[in-house]
Amino acid sequence: MSNDDSAQRRANFSAVQDGKVLRITLTNPKRKNAIDYDTMIGLGDAFLAAAQDRAVRVIVLTGAGGDFCTGADLAASPGEAARGITSDMVMDAANRVVKSIVDVPVPVIARLRGAAAGVGVGIALAADLVYASDDAYLLLAFINIGLMPDGGAAAMVAAAAGRPLAAEMALLGERLPAPAAKQAGLFTAVVPAEELDAKVEAAAAKLANGPRRAIELTKRALNRATLGALDQALATEKSGQTELLQSPDFIEGATAMLTKRKPVFAD
Question: What is the CATH number assigned to the segment(s) 13-194+212-259?
Answer without folding.
Answer: 3.90.226.10
